[in-house]
Amino acid sequence: MAVSSQMVPLGTPAPDFALPDLAGRTVRRDDFVAAPGLLVAFLCNHCPYVRHVEAGLGRMLAHHPDLAVVGVCANDTDAYPDDRPEHLAEQARRAGWSFPYLVDFEQTVARAYEAACTPDFFLYDAQLRLAYRGAMDDSTPGSGKPVTAELLEDAITHVLAGEAVPEPHRPSLGCSIKWRE
Q: Which helix (H) or strand (E) covers residue 111, if one does?
């Protein structure tokens, strides 16, 4: 069942995190304090909504090398084994992702960010304040609309220019995060 992202208030500070990447190295939010912006994308391998946009996300992000980006998978990997780290690594290769892909085994980071679905995008400005939350574009699986990444790309362009992202922001739509019981 598709779920919409929560529209966390703009200006909310980026919650702290320290999570392992797919090689087991710890990546921290504060590793990116010098960046002009930080995109925290809640993703996973099994979700058809993520699979629908993954290659387009990789292509679009390649145009913004100054933007710091992390992907986070918070799904229960016991219930969803396709979201285990080895499968996330396959996904990152398939999608052309060069950003750190982090695993939130305890699901505390997803809860702190108020992530609700995959994909769920949180874009922070240079002061690590929330500047955009919402959809990558208007495309969803089966909609017939092409993956353009236009909504997220426009938001990134504004953030990298030091500008506010005009509202309204369209919520993301995707699979619910698979919380542990």
A: helix 108-113
Per the structure block, which two tokens stand in for 93?
């290769």
Give, rounded to a whole angstrom, the gap between the first and last alpha carbons of the chain. Answer: 18
| Residue partners of 162: CB distance under 8 A and separation at least 6 | 36, 125, 126
Find the mean pLDDT for residues 57-70.
96
Amino acid at 80: Y
Q: pTM for the full model?
A: 0.96
Contacts of 104 (CB under 8 A, 6+ apart): 17, 19, 72, 73, 74, 110
Architecture in CATH of 2-176: 3-Layer(aba) Sandwich (3.40)
Top-confidence residue, 140 or 55: 55
Rounded distance, CA 116 to CA 118, Å?
Answer: 7
